[in-house]
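Please decode residue identities from the backbone states below.
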């Protein structure tokens, strides 16, 4: 799975085979990655069907920051290409799809946790959580189990600082979460680590389902504060985050804003091309 940076990937918007809407990235040497699943209910239904059939999956939640990273990180592109499902986690991705004439729903990873845990409880599927810190995982697991009667979180693994999602330590983490009986695994490592670990998991533990959720467990545990609902409804969660940590995030969001005009032109061109 490991690969270097390489040249920037071209980006184009196009229709997907058998999908309601799709935003694809033409990636040299790694096929195409992009939005494959148009909404939350469709995603949850497919996750449930795979779990009941004993099949694994990997779900990524695409946002504009990921687009920027995908252009410069070949390893991240390969990891995204290995995902079985990709949803639109970010209003810019939703808007770009609409510009291209294809409608998708906004499906943030953090908002998938509750419905996914309710599904796991209903189906009797054991859950594992990987990422953050031991304290956060314990608090988040306790709150999720209390909120969803019947839910069993059987594995809680907090990798150390500097964790390599493609190294020997990653193999050990995947073996441990499988050995403890988890069948659905929440990955809270941030991008690109969580997507890379999910891709490795598809190879090493193909019967497990992996759901990348970013800071979702930190929000549930109270270790981080998520933007209020009214801020999210105004599509200003990015501003909320940047104001909370401008030194770390200002450059990231500047790169995202710089990428938007070119992506919008590509989306409009796809719409006109029909």
């Amino acid at each position: 799975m490991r690969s270097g940076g390489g040249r920037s990937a071209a980006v184009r918007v196009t229709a997907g085979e058998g999908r309601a809407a799709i935003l694809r990235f033409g990636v040299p040497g790694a096929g195409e990655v992009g939005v494959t699943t148009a909404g939350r209910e469709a995603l949850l239904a497919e996750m449930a069907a795979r779990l009941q059939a004993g099949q694994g999956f990997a779900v990524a939640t695409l946002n504009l920051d990921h687009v920027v990273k995908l252009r410069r990180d070949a390893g991240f592109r390969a990891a995204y290409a290995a995902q079985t499902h990709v949803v639109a986690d970010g209003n810019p991705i939703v808007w770009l799809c609409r510009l291209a004439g294809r409608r998708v729903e906004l499906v943030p990873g953090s908002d998938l946790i509750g419905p996914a845990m309710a599904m796991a409880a209903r189906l009797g599927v054991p859950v594992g959580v990987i990422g953050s810190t031991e304290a956060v995982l314990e608090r988040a697991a306790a709150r999720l189990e209390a909120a969803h009667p019947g839910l069993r979180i059987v594995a809680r693994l907090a990798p150390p600082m500097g964790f390599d999602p493609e190294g020997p330590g990653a193999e050990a983490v995947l073996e441990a979460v499988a050995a403890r009986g988890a069948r659905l695994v929440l990955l809270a490592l941030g991008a690109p680590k969580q997507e890379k670990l999910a891709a490795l998991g598809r190879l090493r533990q193909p019967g497990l389902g992996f759901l990348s959720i970013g800071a979702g467990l930190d929000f549930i545990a109270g270790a981080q504060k998520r933007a209020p609902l009214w801020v999210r409804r105004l599509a200003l969660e990015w501003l909320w985050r940047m104001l909370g940590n401008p030194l770390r995030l200002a450059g990231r969001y500047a790169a995202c804003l710089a990428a938007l005009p070119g992506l919008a032109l590509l989306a409009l061109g796809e719409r006109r091309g029909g």
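Observation: Residues 3-21, 25-31 have pLDDT under 50 and may be disordered.
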